[in-house]
Amino acid sequence: MKKCFKCGGTEIVTGSIEGTGERSPAYLFRPKHKIRFLAVTIRHGTELDKESYACLSCGTVWSQTNGEALRDFIRDNCKPLDHCG
Length: 85
What we know:
Elements: E1 15-19, E2 27-31, E3 46-47, E4 53-54, E5 61-62, H1 67-77
Antiparallel strand pairs: 1-2, 2-3, 4-5
């Protein structure tokens, strides 16, 4: 079972960090969940906070997105999965 290293939560979603490609680029967390057929969404994820962090010892890099916005995005736009991993 995966756990959040910050809060200990166990509802972990796999995904990727992607640029928006706009003139003023932002970065999104795009859940690995498949987008539902005919889902109407301009962006395929939730915007990451402007500030990110990196560990100088191991190289782990992380940022944060709004948890409620991410849950809403998955509920409204994605096909359900048997597990989040």
